Amino acid sequence: MHRFDVRTAQRTYPCVVERGILRRVSEFVPSSAGKIFLVTTEDVWTLHGAEIGGQLGDLRVLFFAGGEVNKRLAALEALAEQMVEYGADRTSALIAFGGGIVTDIAGFLASIFMRSIDVLQIPTTLLAQVDAAIGGKTGVNLVSGKNLIGTFYQPLAVLIDPDVIATLPDREYRAGLFEVLKCGVIRDRPLFDLLANLSDEVLSRKPDLVDDLIARAVRIKAEIVSADERESDLRRILNFGHTIGHAIEAETQYAQFLHGEAVAWGMLTATRLAELLGMLNSDNAGEVRRVICRYGPLPPAKHLSPDRLIERLAADKKTLQGKIHFVLPTAIGEVKIISGIDVGILRQAIAASLQELS
Ligand SMILES: NC(=O)c1ccc[n+]([C@@H]2O[C@H](COP(=O)([O-])OP(=O)(O)OC[C@H]3O[C@@H](n4cnc5c(N)ncnc54)[C@H](O)[C@@H]3O)[C@@H](O)[C@H]2O)c1
Ligand SMILES: [Zn+2]
After folding, report:
1. Per-10-residue mean pLDDT for the chain, 358 residues long?
2. Residue ID of nearest Cα to ligand 1 atom 33
3. DSSP of 220-267
4. pLDDT for 62
5. Ligand 1 pocket, residues with Cβ under 6 angstroms
6. How many other C-beta atoms are found inside a 10 Å radius of the C-beta of residue 286?
7. First CA to last CA across the chain, in angstroms?
8. Are the CB atoms for 202 and 177 separated by under 8 Å?
9. Quick check: 134 and 8 in contact, CB under 8 A?
C-alpha cells in the first residue's frame, strides 16, 4: 500500500494506491454522509461494480454514457436532476468511478451540486489513476473547446486499485503509460529508466511493476499539486507534451488519437524543439524518442499540417496573454518552461517530429 497526501488550501487528502481497495471504499465515506451516489459508465460497472456495490447500503448508481462528446453540461444537468429525484441533499456524497471523463464530470457535478457536496474519486483507467483524478481539476467540454468550463475542487480521497488495470484495453493502457513516461521525463530519471529497461514486463502488466509505476507517478502529481494547486508555475511542468498534444487532438476532432497518444506526439515535438534550441543533448533526445517508440505504435501524424497546429496553439488554455509556453526537457528528469519561441524553429520541430516513427 502506498499513500501520498495532497495538501491544498481547500483540504488535505490521501491518494491511496492499493490492490483490493475497491472492497474498502466504505471506510473513506464520512459517517455523517447522507445518501451516497455513484457516477460510472456501464462497462466499468459491469466489470468492477460488484466489488463496491455491497458495502454502501442503498447506494444509488447513476450511469453516464461516457465519451468525450458526452462530457457536456447537458449530461451533468441530467445527472443532477436524477440526484434530486432520488432525494439528494447537501449531506449527500458522490463517488466518481471510471476513467478521466467520469472523474472530470462527476468532480464538476459534486463541486456545484447544491453549491458543493463531498466527492470520492475512484479512477479506473491508468490515465485517470496517475493524472486526471488527482489534483481537483474538474470540467466539461464546450462546442468551442475541451474542458473550457470547470472548477478546482478537491476530493475527500483518491482510491487507486491497480487490479482494475487488468481489464483495460491495450491501447488505453499504453496511452496511460505515456503520462507515466511524462512524469519520468519531467522529474524522475529512475522512473524513466524503469520504463526504458523493463518495457516487456511493463507491457505485459507485471503486477509489482504496475504498482510501482502508478505509485511513482501518483507521488509526483501529489507533490506538484501540493506545491502549486492553481497551476501558477510548478504545476505547468505537468503539461510537458500537452501544448502540441492538445493541438493535435483538436485538429483531428478528438477522433484519431487518444489523449495519451497525442501527448506522446507532443513529447516528441517538445524533445525535438529542445534539441534544436540547444537545450537538450542528442543522446538524451534519442533516449526519449526510443522509449516513446517502444510503447507505440502511435496513430500516424504525418498528415497533420504544422502551420495549422501552430494556429491551434493560440487558442489553447495554456496560451497566456498571447504567449505560447513550452515545457522543454533540459535532461531526463528536468524541464524548463520557455516562451517566445521563434515560429520558424517551432515549425521545423513540429515538421521533423511528425515524420518520426513513420
Ligand atoms: N482533470 C485533470 O486533471 C485531467 C488530466 C488528464 C486528463 N483528463 C481528462 O481525462 C479524460 C480522458 O480520460 P481517460 O483516458 O481515462 O478516458 P475515458 O474516461 O474515456 O476511459 C477510456 C475508456 O476505458 C473504459 N474503462 C475505464 N476503466 C476501465 C477498466 N478498468 N477496464 C476496462 N475499460 C475501462 C471507459 O469506459 C472508456 O471507454 C479526458 O476528458 C481528459 O480531459 C483530466
Ligand atoms: Zn494529460
Report:
1. 94 97 97 96 98 91 95 98 98 98 98 98 98 97 89 97 98 98 97 98 98 98 89 85 93 92 97 97 97 95 94 69 84 94 93 83
2. 168
3. HHHHHHHH-TT-SSGGGGGGTTHHHHHHHHHHTTTSS--HHHHHHHHH
4. 98
5. 41, 43-44, 47, 66, 68, 71, 98-102, 104, 124-125, 127-128, 131-132, 135, 137, 146-147, 164, 167-168, 172, 259
6. 12
7. 41
8. yes
9. no
Pocket test for ligand 1, best of 51, 101, 121, 167 (most atoms within 8 A of CB): 101
Tell me which H or E stretch contains 139. none
The full set of domains in the chain, from first to last, is 2-164 (3.40.50.1970), 170-354 (1.20.1090.10)
pLDDT of residue 322: 59
The answer to whether the beta carbons of residues 184 and 191 sit under 8 Å apart is: yes
Record the pTM: 0.95
Neighbours of 203 (CB within 10 A): 15
Q: What is the pLDDT of residue 230?
A: 74
| Cα–Cα distance for residue pair 358/353, rounded to 1 Å | 10
